[in-house]
Amino acid sequence: MSQAPHPTGAVANSPAALTNALPSYLDPNNLGPWGIYLQQVDRVTPYLGNLARWVDTLKRPKRTLIVDVPIHLDDGSVAHFEGYRVQHNTSRGPGKGGVRFHQNVTLSEVMALSAWMSIKNAAVNVPYGGAKGGIRVDPRQLTIGELERVTRRYTSEIGIIIGPTKDIPAPDVNTNEQIMAWMMDTYSMNEGSTATGVVTGKPVDLGGSLGRREATGRGVFTVGVEAAKHTGMDISTARVAVQGFGNVGGVAGKLFAEAGAKVVAVQDHGGTIYREAGLDVPGLLAHVARTGSVAGFEQAEAMADDAFWDVPCDILIPAALEQQITHANAGRIQAKMVIEGANGPTTPQADDILHDRGVLVVPDVIANAGGVTVSYFEWVQDFSSFFWSEDEINARLVKIMQDAFAAVWQVADANKVSLRTATFIVACKRILHARDLRGLYP
What we know:
The protein is an alpha/beta fold. Among the domains are: 134 residues, Rossmann fold, CATH 3.40.50; 107 residues, NAD(P)-binding Rossmann-like Domain (Rossmann fold), CATH 3.40.50.720. The strands form two sheets. The chain has a seven-stranded mixed β-sheet, with helices on both faces. Strands 1-2-4-3-5 form a five-stranded mixed β-sheet. Helix 2 packs parallel to helix 3 and helix 11 crosses helix 12.
């Protein structure tokens, strides 16, 4: 398979047919994350064989919880925030997925993210279902004390459905090891015993795993290397552009640079920078750690944010938020390969445009699964109270990611479909086979 076959697969899945199959409450011109996910499921359904009888299981979250999160602010007033926890599917194991704190969090977004977690976990074959959580809040507007109170109250509110064998949260956008420590402590206090396995992405001193912080970016790099091998791209001479330069994009950029690639452009919330000869990635990471953004990095020139999509490069890594690559900019992208570090960064329309232009898209549900893979390692270590070295963790991560990518590539080649559709075929079959074996109760 030299390039991505058509992502829509069977003729029956024409854009018109897919639009007609959407629920009536979705606007076909503005699907939102959940609508995008439903289109992805429709595209894979013809490849599910007898398991297609269960496909509606994938279109309905198992459990959706919306909670009020009231806290006292430092000035004595009371503020209310809306929180969510969605468990999409638990046929293969407990729910697993991050918690994001962002002012634009919506239920549609969290539902889609939980569903993509189901696909992601099944694609790398870890024994989890999919879940996700979030609070509609701008954490930059909170003091550290307010942030802790929001975290603890949210944890108490969703405590009725989470737990080490039920649903295990983890860090996501604007959440980190400290947030996970507060969540673990709150859950443990309410349970009356220490439960380290209730969350992953914790500080190492509280049962966290070595290598967890870098795991998602390392996974992006690993599948990028595998994709390059299959397409004949030389990583050591590749030019890379990265959107988002935190734990995912920053780590991936660093690993690509260490492999000889030139990171020529980086964009984050503060701005966009470019250097044709390649950026000093360690220096840029230090600058971001010091200032909070790539903006103002002296060894690069600033450029307009929209011009980022026109940068000449071989590999583009969107590692920020969803719906960044759309029908409006997909035709401008000059990369030969897009490796999705973020969740849902490419819309279905953009997917089709990129395919028609011969751009290989390595989808999020395989590309950024390194984080949940090492989260699984952390969960296992917490249960056994026996911890592995970082070298062991990285070696196990790379092996799982390589094997998962090889299986997806084989399915894509056999069915003449895109890597995204192939990943959904692999994952959906695993989920629905578990559903079929378990049957319905009562």
